[in-house]
């Protein structure tokens, strides 16, 4: 753990009792870059609090007040993320807190580990739990981490099948030739995120999101060579060259899936990616004759 992570972790340990003194809060953990030991000058403190029953807004506000925090925002329940969120500062340091019920967390574990649900948000929650450090309620966190130790092959298959689709290469080639930068760069972002999602599945890693990408790529056993550098080169090259670089990465990702997970077919996805409609400099001859 680096120094930037250490002092944030120490501060989080001082804050944890303000949550754990509530008998309904059975687990308090720290996640994000601090838990992974990667924090830098820009990092906040990310806390997760897990409750027997949903916390009220009054309870959340009262905890922040007792801790001496300066409240910035309190958000209501987010049904997709299944969390309530707070943002405040302690001595100027931002603290981002996500609250979830234990029932919701255990349902997510069942959905992903037993039913092989490839949904990004559910995998993201499990990834956060896998790398979290306990501040209170260690036994519950350990129990969940033990459940998530084995990433099911069926989940990897589901993730890859759900994310194999890329827009035809020709579409990006046209944007590049026209110097149509806005849709081209939007397509770059979509394609690179999809490559990463496929590689996380191929490597049996719960999706950790798209921050700290260089470090995420370091954890991949199966990936195109020099992936971090080549991702950046896509953006830093002129559009036609950058598009060629991106397409090479997509092709290499298909090949890695063929090699390491042959039970998932890439044939249809390749056919769509390689679709190449004819170009027309002038009207077809038959059309001209009819005129």
Give an account of the 3D structure.
- The chain is of the alpha+beta class.
- The chain has two domains: 3-150, Beta Polymerase, domain 2 (2-Layer Sandwich); 155-273.
- Helices cover 55% and strands 15% of the residues.
- The chain is built from 14 helices and six strands.
- It has helices spanning 3-20, 32-36, 57-66, 102-113, 120-131, 138-147, 153-163, 169-177, 181-202, 213-218, 227-236, 239-260, 267-273, 285-290; strands at 25-31, 45-51, 70-78, 83-90, 93-101, 133-136.
- It has a six-stranded mixed sheet with strand order 3-4-5-2-1-6, with helices on both faces.
- The relative contact order is 0.10.
What's the SSE blueprint?
Elements: H1 3-20, E1 25-31, H2 32-36, E2 45-51, H3 57-66, E3 70-78, E4 83-90, E5 93-101, H4 102-113, H5 120-131, E6 133-136, H6 138-147, H7 153-163, H8 169-177, H9 181-202, H10 213-218, H11 227-236, H12 239-260, H13 267-273, H14 285-290
Parallel strand pairs: 2-5
Antiparallel strand pairs: 1-2, 1-6, 3-4, 4-5
Pfam family, one: DUF4037
Protein name: DUF4037 domain-containing protein
Domain DUF4037: 138-212
Short summary:
This protein is an alpha+beta fold and 291 residues long. The protein is built from 14 helices and six strands.
């Amino acid at each position: 753990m680096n120094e930037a992570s250490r002092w944030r972790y120490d501060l989080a340990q001082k804050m944890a009792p303000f949550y754990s003194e509530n008998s309904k809060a059975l687990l308090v953990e720290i996640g994000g870059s601090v838990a992974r030991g990667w924090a830098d000058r820009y990092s906040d403190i990310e806390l997760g609090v897990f409750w027997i029953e949903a916390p009220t807004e009054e309870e959340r506000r009262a905890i922040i007040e007792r801790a001496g925090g300066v409240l910035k925002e309190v958000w209501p329940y987010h049904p997709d993320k299944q969390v309530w969120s707070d943002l405040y500062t302690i001595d100027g340091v931002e603290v981002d807190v996500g609250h979830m019920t234990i029932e919701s967390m255990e349902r997510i574990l069942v959905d992903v580990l037993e039913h092989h649900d490839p949904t990004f948000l559910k995998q993201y929650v499990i990834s956060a739990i896998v790398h979290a450090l306990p501040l209170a309620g260690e036994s519950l966190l350990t129990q969940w981490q033990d459940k998530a130790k084995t990433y099911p092959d069926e989940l990897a298959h589901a993730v890859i099948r759900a994310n194999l689709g890329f827009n035809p290469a020709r579409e990006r080639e046209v944007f590049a030739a026209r110097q149509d930068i806005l849709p081209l760069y939007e397509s770059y972002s979509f394609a690179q995120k999809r490559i990463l999602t496929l590689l996380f599945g191929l490597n049996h890693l719960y999706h950790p999101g798209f921050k700290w990408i260089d470090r995420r790529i370091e954890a991949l056993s199966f990936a195109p060579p020099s992936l971090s550098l080549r991702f950046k080169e896509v953006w830093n090259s002129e559009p036609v060259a950058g598009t060629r670089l991106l397409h090479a990465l997509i092709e290499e990702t298909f090949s890695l899936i063929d090699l390491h997970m042959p039970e998932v077919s890439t044939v249809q996805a390749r056919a769509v990616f390689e679709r190449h409609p004819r170009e027309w400099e002038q009207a077809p001859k038959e059309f001209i004759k009819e005129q």
